[in-house]
Write a structure and sequence with these properties.
With 258 residues, the chain is an alpha/beta fold. The chain has three domains: 149 residues, 3-Layer(aba) Sandwich (Rossmann fold), CATH 3.40.50.1220; 46 residues, no CATH class; 36 residues. The protein has eleven helices and nine strands. The structure holds ligand BJW.
């Protein structure tokens, strides 16, 4: 019943917004940040790391200690090591049923604005043509000297040179804690939030801002909040329709009904 209700809300919405988090890629094998138990990043990483013969290098680190400009300035080898490892892991994954379902929903609802906090590129790989990547992309580097962007699929180290200015100052083109999100991406999302009548939030813990504030804003304007998550964790916002379960099982059914 809730599934039909969610589909009907989305179908009728004039200015719908879709927001995904790490949970949508969990069924592809990409580790989430906080898992389902509010654990440090090591929780998910350790299991996969062990599966792939990697020792517990990251056991003593939290995502917040690696994904900051200060961490990178302190120890670029460590931070690049973390990103190279994640990049390799992500490169071995494929989009899952949830990514394909969102593509299908977007085809049926051309006015759906899609945003993701994920850096794995799996929405694009599933065929979604327009996706706002709020936190960057794991395959992209940015030169801290000349600011040029590049896609580098191989490992990067602190000595890897920028293809444009030849300096060795590449960083991941990822939004770290305390850094501003891409202006154009935020402008598009805030323009949508000003009129948004329904938001579909999938697989996020709602613990990182500004993304966690989107549903708050939609509710404030009396829009409908639809949430899909495997657990009903503490969120800074309330939902109107809560669909508990795996995104890869629920979203395809919604895609059929929209
Ligand atoms: C399933 C599932 C399945 C599992 N199906 N579900 C307001 C208040 C307080 C603090 C702040 C605030 N505004 C800003 C801040 C500071 C900070 C912040 O939010 N801190 C919090 C910790 C409180 N925010 C920032 O610093 C942001 N920048 C900013 O605001 O700049 C302002 C500024 C202005 C002027 C000058 C300068 C700055 C930047 C945030 C960047 C976040 N970056 C990260 C890491 C980098 C990316 C990377 O390396 O990959 O992005 S943090 C990490 O968390 C990552 C994620 O995108 C992000 C969100 O995580 P997500 O997606 O929610 O994942 P999880 O793991 O938390 O949750 C997974 C969920 O899936 C769970 O709920 C599961 O149950 C579920 N799930 N399997 C469905 N199969």
């Amino acid at each position: 019943m809730s599934m039909e209700k969610a589909a009907a809300v989305l179908r009728r919405a004039q200015y719908p917004l879709f927001l995904s988090g790490a949970g949508i890629s969990a069924e592809s094998g990409v580790p989430t940040f906080r898992g389902t138990r509010g654990a440090k990043v090591g929780g998910a990483m350790e299991g996969l790391a062990a599966d792939r013969g990697i020792d517990g290098l990251w056991n003593n680190y939290r995502a917040e200690d690696l994904a900051t400009p200060e961490a990178f300035a302190r120890d670029p080898h460590l931070v690049w090591g973390w990103y190279n490892w994640r990049k390799r892991l992500i490169a071995s994954t494929q989009p899952n049923a949830a990514h394909f379902a969102i593509h299908r929903i977007a085809q049926k609802l051309p006015n759906l604005l899609c945003a993701t906090q994920n850096v794995d590129g799996l929405h694009t790989l599933a065929g979604l043509e327009s996706i706002l990547e709020m936190h960057g992309n794991i395959y992209r580097t940015r030169c801290t000297q000349c600011q040029s962007l590049a896609i580098i699929r191989d490992d990067v180290t602190p000595t890897t040179q920028c293809g444009n200015c030849q300096s060795a100052n590449l960083r991941p083109d990822i939004v770290w804690f305390g850094e501003q999100l891409p202006r154009a991406v935020l402008d598009s999302i805030y323009a949508r939030l000003a009129v948004c009548d329904a938001i579909l939030v999938v697989g996020t813990s709602g613990s990182v801002y500004p993304a966690a504030g989107f549903a708050i804003e939609v509710r404030r304007r009396e829009g409908v909040v639809i949430e899909i998550n495997v657990e009903d964790g503490h969120k800074p916002y309330a939902h109107d329709i809560y669909l508990r379960g795996k995104a890869g099982e629920i979203l395809p059914q919604i895609a059929d009904l929209v």
